[in-house]
Amino acid sequence: MSLLTHLLACLFGMGSWVSINGLWVELPLIVPQIPEAWYLPSYLSVIIQMANIGPLFVTLMHRFRPGALNETAVIYVIIGLGTVATFLLGFFWKETVVVAGVARSVPLLVLTFFLAAVDCTSSVTFLPFMMRLKSQYLTTYYIGEGVSGLLPSLVALIQGVGLVHCINSTQSVNYTLNIPNGSVTSDLQAQYQPANFSTEVFFFFLSAMMLVCLGAFLLLNYHPSVAREQPNSKYTNGVKQKTKNRELVEQKPMMDPFRPENQKPRSSFGTGSYSWMEVFYIFGILAWVNALSNTVLPSVQSYSCMPYGNNAYHLSASLAALSNPLACFIAMFLPIRSLLFMGALTVIGTGVGVYIMIMAVLSPCPLLVNDTSGGVIIVLAWVLFILTLSYVKVIIGVILRDEGHSALVWCGAVVQLGSLLGAVTMFPLVSVYDYFSSGDPCNTKCS
């Protein structure tokens, strides 16, 4: 295998969600300077789900007009759009427009919609494009997709996003009444530390990352050493051409490598290696793990971690982001495709997720809040949660890759569907009904 191709596949995958992930980690510096304040995350959740019109369009075109959509051209367009949008955010993110007499961050919201459309559409275009390379490179792509969450988090840590110090704030009671014997009370006040570099620089960094993704995609298309890594050259616009020998086009799934060539297909899905029950099982797990890991649990991460302190929150965010590419790296050398094992890992990850959700519900006074072990457990819970479910996602991607180009298109569509269902479920709970409480980082007292 070519190390250059591995590197390019990783950089290509990195561009899939780097812009939206970067926007989320930068929120602590953005919200104090815009009129929407901390309502912005709720608006972003809605905007990101509206942007699913992109993958919906691509999926419908693939279903009803196969071959009509130039897959390579679409990828060029969305990467270019993402590069321009992140660059423009560096100039206009805090500009406002008066709408119905109220100042609104219209440029930020509009540019975010374009970023979300780019990243959502990448789920149904980047994955199918990887069909052009050998199956080993799909795992490397998933590593890059994990890095798209890790890298912005690390840069944000260097930037100093969200660092809080508690300082003494002395208040004089009855001061306005000029009572000589007015009592004096001491209170702690949360003070956010200034960043090491500006939000504008951070957005320009994200734009540079999208340029790197564009360069990687160009080389994946035109570099000679990459061409030698293609299992065949029977592709036009991402659509598999008919060949007399089907095995040259699609590798046989490893679930049953000794299946006789003349055995009747178990279903009309892909190569027919899986029954429809197994297909629904795979896609059901795919939707479930993406709902949990992309929207449901991330929407309450601050509630589950902040009561244990800022260090616990930042460690959980950073190590969880690191767990994603680590799971992909493990899957590269240990690809266990057993559907039973996949289900067991999903149950384990879901169980850990239930613990995280319970801690978020109990916020600001979760279990062991005054004990160091509480912070250690919540950090380890986040690491195990992301590690197990990321491994499941990679293995499903590898399995569906062997089922053909169409299977990967549906893989991306189900990923977005799961994320959408998770967001629709959590948005009213978090933003409308205020079911979760964060408390004061400096003054919350728990018995």
UniProtKB/TrEMBL annotation:
Subcellular location, principal: membrane
UniProt catalytic activity: riboflavin(in) = riboflavin(out)
Subcellular location per the Swiss-Prot or TrEMBL entry: Cell membrane
Segments traversing the membrane: 38-61, 73-93, 105-129, 141-164, 201-220, 274-292, 312-334, 339-362, 374-400, 407-430
Pfam families: SLC52_ribofla_tr
Keyword S-adenosyl-L-methionine: no
Record keywords, A-Z: Cell membrane, Membrane, Transmembrane, Transmembrane helix, Transport
Gene Ontology MF annotations: riboflavin transmembrane transporter activity
Gene Ontology cellular-component annotations: plasma membrane
Keyword Amino-acid biosynthesis: no
Protein topology in the membrane: Multi-pass membrane protein
Family: Belongs to the riboflavin transporter family.
Function, in words: Plasma membrane transporter mediating the uptake by cells of the water soluble vitamin B2/riboflavin that plays a key role in biochemical oxidation-reduction reactions of the carbohydrate, lipid, and amino acid metabolism.
Protein name, entry field: Riboflavin transporter
Lineage start: Eukaryota, Metazoa, Chordata, Craniata, Vertebrata
